[in-house]
Structure formats: structure tokens, C-alpha cells
Predict the structure.
Amino acid sequence: MDNIFDIKNLNLWYGSKHALQGINLRINKQSVVALIGPSGCGKSTFLRCLNRMNDLIVNCHIEGSILFNKVNVNSERYDEINLRKKVGMVFQRPNPFPMSIYENVIYGPKCQGITNKKRLDELVESSLKKAALWEDVKDRLNSSALGLSGGQQQRLCIARAIAMEPDVILMDEPTSALDPIATAKIEKLIIELKANYTIIIVTHSMQQAARISDYTAFFLMGELIEYDKTDIIFANPKNKKTEDYITGRFG
Amino acid sequence: MLNHPWQVKLIKILTYLATILLVLLVFWMVSFIIIQGISYLNMTLLKESSSLIITTLMVVFLALLIALPLGIFSAIYLQVYTNNGKLVKMMRFSIDSLNGVPSIIFGLFALSFFIYYLGLNRSIFSASLIMSIVVLPLIIKNTEEAIKTIDIAQIQGSLALGASRFTTINRVIIPYCIDGIINGVILAIGKIVGETAAIMFVIGSASSIPKSFFEPGSTLATKLYLIIQEPTYSSNGIGSAYGIALILLLIVVLLNLLVKLVNHIFMKRRG
Ligand SMILES: Nc1ncnc2c1ncn2[C@@H]1O[C@H](COP(=O)(O)OP(=O)(O)OP(=O)(O)O)[C@@H](O)[C@H]1O
Ligand SMILES: [Mg+2]
């Protein structure tokens, strides 16, 4: 299978703190990859490398290559804005803009210069449908996004990312602020989205990783300890540390 | 610490007293001006002061036109783009110093730099220029305070959607800061309308309605200053001073209402 991301010897420092140490990882197209590991092990840091959000952090220094469709994006010469059009991101806490639902969805496309009203209307409908939110909001597209429930807001954020027609969607603990019902909806959605997108998701829930992901990467203190098919990671991990973590014998 | 009941009580009483005193003082001052001024506030005075009113509004308009973009973008630069380098420290220091400079010093600077050195005419333009510098710190400080309250997740959300920094500033940061900007504008309007020392040497004087920004003029405040100093200057003597003071207060109130109205319409359009 083709890989969409090929990460080679990735090292990251926050000042003098070596937060990611020699990470090597390949990610297949149209798969769901779960990143697991204890708090502070570098999952979010790793995820932010993939759409260059670490650029915003002062004193953050990155070495190594991140090939995205065979092109190294971890380079001054690669425009991070172009990368973010192809690699969308959904955050831990839903962060819709204080605008209408419609405006939220077309924020990305508008930034890309799409102004045709008909095209935007289509994008809004198809994105909201893909994010399983269309039925909930089709009658109130022009009311404020802040009036939605937390789970709906998160699905709107997913729709907003989908509207850019990306190849990859990064999700950093997207359900940790949601109740079990909203969580189940998002999990179902992720599995559906797999047909068209590659999804990389950080999660603290072993069950969630097991339910939705094809591959799982286990991080510990800035290192990638083990990366394999999710079934293998959960049924018979090769590394003792992985086993300790997933069986709960670890922090 | 203050944990004795009587200490708490004392603080409470002092706070009440201070509040009452403050309210009474404001009430007394305003009602004094209204009572004294109302009898002089007639068509003759309004006609007489129409050029003053227009000149004042022109200075407010032009000074804000210069100071607003400059102030907003300085604030954004200070808060968003930079990470406490040398340049930022210097900018901060200049802004803070600017804020503490007495307005007569601005007047002196404006006279020697704009008029004598640059050779500008004494005009509404020169007055607006110096007033834009006077109110710049107000705009910057208030915008900065508002930027500090922005939820960083909003900025991240925008950038993650492939928006440029410019788009993010335009569509996320500025709409979020609008309250802070409005606050700064209201303070700035009060300052501009009431200012005398900073502008009286560079605005010249005239009693007819100015036809452009490059003509001299008198604002309500500079005229008021002259009349108080030399009551024979006006037909009604010191009486018209009260009338003009009342107009000045009304203008400040009306402008503030206008700013709030504009803000309201703006917010409504954004939904
Ligand atoms: N902006 C930053 N500046 C300095 N250090 C940071 C910064 N962000 C993260 N770190 C450090 O880098 C390490 C990895 O952090 P990261 O947020 O990636 O962990 P995580 O695995 O996502 O944890 P969690 O599960 O709690 O979200 C931590 O030790 C953290 O303190
Ligand atoms: Mg994290």
C-alpha cells in the first residue's frame, strides 16, 4: 500500500527539552492511525509536526524529514499554508468560530479563494453530510455555531476540516470533551471517513483506539516504542512496555 | 491580612463613602454645567459655535483615521507577532512614556516640529496629526488588553484551516477585539474633544466654517479656553463659556452613542 506520510529520524526540541527522539513512522493512505501513550509522551507534539503547527511555538526546533506524498514538508522552503490545506486538524476542545454554521464551514474554502456562491453552498452541504451533521443543522445554517451542543460543535469542526478537501485529518483527543453518545457518533464518523481520508488520532482511551484504528503507535517519553496493526498491538505486543501500558500496569 | 471583622467593616464603609463621593462629584459637576449653560444654549450660540462644532468633529475624525489603523496594528504586532525581543521592549517603553507625557509638551513639540521645522500651516490637519499621537497609546493599550483575552484555540483553528496570518488577523483577531478597540475609541474621543494644550499652538484660529482639513480653525475646547481667559472675547462674556462647555459635553455623549451604535450594527451583521 502507498504511504502518505513517511517520517524519518524526526527529532524535536522545546528549548533544551528533547521532546521527540528519533521517530520513524510510515502512515498508509486511507487508514486510521491511533497515537497512544501516557501524558507528556509527545503525542500532540508529534501530531503538530504533521501540519507544522509547531511553527507557532517559540524555541521549538525540529530536525529530520517528514515526507508527505514523497515531498519533505519539514523545510523552510515548503509553504506551511499549502500543507495545512491538505492536512486538516481537529482539536481537543471544539473551537468553532463565533460565526454562523455556514460561515464556519466555508472559512477554509474562502481562504483558498473560492467565492462562487453555488460552489460554496455545495461544499457546505456535502461537508456537513460527511460529518453527519446535515440533518441536525440544515434548517439553521445561518444561526451561530456557538448555539450547537459540544458534540455538534466538534462535528462542525470536522465538517470545517472536510470542506477543505484534505487528504489527511489530524485529531487530537477529539472526544475527550464529549459525553459517551456524542463520542460514539464521532467514532462512527471516523470509521466512515476512512474511505476517503487518512485519519491520525490521539487518544487516551485504549477501547477507542481498539475500536476505530487500523494501526496504533505507542509513544513513551518522546520515543516511539512500538507501531503495528492495532490487532497485534492489543493482542500480542512485542515490547514489554507496550504490554504494561495497554494492560494498565503503567501510570 | 485583613481578617478582623472590624477591618473588613472599615474597608466596606470607606468603599461606600468613596463611591458616594465620586457619584456626587460627577453629578454636581455635570449639573453645574447644565444649569449654568442651559440659559445660554440658544440658536444664537449654536449658530456662533457651528464652526467650532464642525472643526472639533473634523479633528476627531482625522485624528482617529490616523491613530486607529496605526494603533490596532501596533497592538497586534506587539501581541501576536513578536516574542519580547529588543524592538518590542523599545516599543513598549515608547508607548508607556507617550502615555505619561503632559499635553503641553505635545503642544510644544507640534509647534516646533510641524510648524517651524516641517513648515506645515497652522491647520486642522496639523492639530489632528498631533492628536493622533496623543491618543495612540490609548488605542494600543485597549486593543492589546482585548487581544490578551482571545482564546488561542481560535487562532490555531484559523491557521489550521490554511488561513494566512493576515486573514487570521482580519477575520478572527480584530472581530474579537472590537470591544477593546471601541473602548479605546471612546476614551480617545473624550481626549480629542477636550484637548487644548496640545493643539492650540498648531490649529490657528478662525470663526468661519472650515472648507478643508488644511484650513485653520478653533475647536470647542480651544475657544472655551480663550473665552475663560478673556471673557470679552465673546458677546456673552463668561456666559457663553458655560454654553460652549455644555455643547462640548453633549458632543462627547453623542459621539460615544454613535460609536456604540456603529458597533451594534457591525456585530449584528456578523451574526
Ligand atoms: N509549547 C511547549 N513548550 C515547551 N514544552 C512543551 C510545549 N508543548 C509541550 N511541551 C512538552 O513536551 C512534552 C510532550 O508534550 P505533548 O503535549 O506532546 O504531550 P502529550 O503526549 O500530547 O500529552 P497529553 O496526553 O497530556 O496531551 C511534554 O513534556 C511537554 O511538557
Ligand atoms: Mg496532548
